[in-house]
Design brief:
single chain; Adenine-n6-DNA-methyltransferase TaqI, Chain A, domain 2; 2 domains; 6-stranded mixed beta sheet; 4-stranded antiparallel beta sheet; 7 helices; 29% helix
C-alpha cells in the first residue's frame, strides 16, 4: 500500500466531501489591460493566454490560480505565487481557507474544470465564462495531509515529463545535425540498398489466442515505437507458410502507409509479423548499410517529414 493509500484509509475512510469554490475561495478579476504590459517589467502579468507578459506594477501578492475569462477556457491554468498583475478578463482564485493546498486545487481544476464548464454550457464549445460559473465548481477537499501527498506525487511526475520533453528535443537536434550531410554525400534511392520491399498478403489472417504478434497501423505510435499491449495473434503454422519477405526480421524497417503515414519503425524482434498491406517491410542489405541508420534518417527526413505536405 502506498503512502497515499494509507493516508486516505486513515484520514477519510468514509469518503471526501465536495464543496463549491465560492465557499472556500476568493474569486475575482484584475483591472489591467494589455496596454499595461511592458517588455522588461518587474512583475509577471497574466492575461487571457498561456503567454505570461511583464508589468511594472502588481495588483496582488498571494498564492492563487489564474484562468482566462475568454478564450482557452478549461485549457489555460496558471499557478501563481508572489506579486503579479492581472488582466481585467482573467480570474484569480485565492483560497482563504487554510485547509486547501492551492497547488492541489490547481491540479484538480486543470483535470476537471473543462468538463464541468462544458456540461453547463449550451453549445459544444465555451468561449467565455463568468464568475458564477467558477463559483459553482465543486472540488473534493480531503484532509490537508492527503492534498499535500497528491501534490508531491504530481510535482514529481511534472518534473519527469519536463525532463523527457527536453531530452526528446535534444535527441531531435543531434539527430538532425548528424544526419545532415549537405551535397557532399551521394544520395541514392532506397530500393538500391534493399533486398526486398513488401507488404502483407492482402488477406485477412485467421486470428489465434496466442502465437505470432500481428501488427497493424494501430500498433505503431507517432514516436516510431511498436505498442504490443493490444496486439492480436496468428498461429505459427500460418506464419511459417508466408513468403520470407512478408515476415519482419531484426533490422527490417516497417512503414505506415495510411492514416499517419510515413512513420518508420526499426524491427528489433524477430517474431514481429506484419501481414497487412498498410505496413510494408523494407529489408536492407546489411552489408551495405544498417537498418537502424536508414530508420533514423527516414524519421529525420524524406517520407516522415513529407507525409503531411500536399
Amino acid at each position: 500500500m502506498s503512502r497515499l493509500d494509507s493516508l486516505v484509509a486513515e484520514l477519510c475512510p468514509n469518503g471526501v466531501e465536495y464543496v463549491q469554490l465560492k465557499t472556500i475561495a476568493n474569486i475575482g478579476t484584475g483591472s489591467s489591460d494589455r496596454i499595461n504590459a511592458v517588455e522588461n517589467g518587474e512583475y509577471p502579468f497574466y492575461v487571457r493566454s498561456k503567454t505570461v507578459f511583464r508589468s511594472s506594477r502588481f495588483l496582488f501578492d498571494e498564492e492563487s490560480i489564474v484562468i482566462p475569462g475568454e478564450g482557452g477556457i478549461g485549457d489555460i491554468f496558471h499557478y501563481v505565487v508572489g506579486k503579479y498583475d492581472l488582466h481585467q478578463r482573467a480570474y484569480r482564485i485565492n483560497f482563504a481557507d487554510g485547509n486547501v493546498n492551492t497547488k492541489y486545487a490547481y491540479y484538480y481544476m486543470a483535470t476537471h474544470f473543462k468538463t464541468f464548464i462544458l456540461m453547463k454550457a449550451v453549445s459544444a464549445t465555451v468561449t467565455s465564462i463568468r464568475k458564477p460559473m467558477i463559483e459553482d465548481f465543486p472540488i473534493p477537499v480531503p484532509p490537508l495531509e492527503v492534498q499535500n501527498e497528491i501534490v508531491r506525487i504530481l510535482d514529481n511526475f511534472t518534473e519527469l515529463t519536463t525532463e523527457l520533453t527536453a531530452r526528446k528535443k535534444q535527441h531531435n537536434y543531434y539527430r538532425d545535425s548528424l544526419l545532415n550531410f549537405g551535397d557532399d554525400v551521394q544520395v541514392v534511392a532506397l530500393s538500391q540498398y534493399c533486398l526486398s520491399i513488401a507488404d502483407g498478403d492482402h488477406q485477412a489472417p485467421p486470428k489465434a489466442d496466442c502465437g505470432i504478434p500481428f501488427i497493424t497501423i494501430s500498433n505503431v505510435s507517432s514516436a516510431g515505437i511498436i505498442d504490443f499491449s493490444n496486439t492480436k495473434f496468428v498461429s505459427e503454422e500460418y506464419y511459417n507458410a508466408l513468403a520470407d519477405k512478408r515476415k519482419a526480421q531484426i533490422g527490417d524497417i516497417l512503414y505506415t502507409v495510411v492514416g499517419s503515414f510515413g512513420i518508420p519503425v526499426c524491427c528489433i524482434a524477430i517474431l514481429v509479423n506484419t501481414l497487412t498491406p498498410i505496413i510494408p517491410i523494407v529489408r536492407i542489405m546489411q552489408k551495405l548499410t544498417r537498418g537502424r541508420y536508414v530508420n533514423l534518417h527516414n524519421s529525420q527526413n524524406s517520407i516522415y517529414r513529407r507525409r503531411n505536405q500536399p
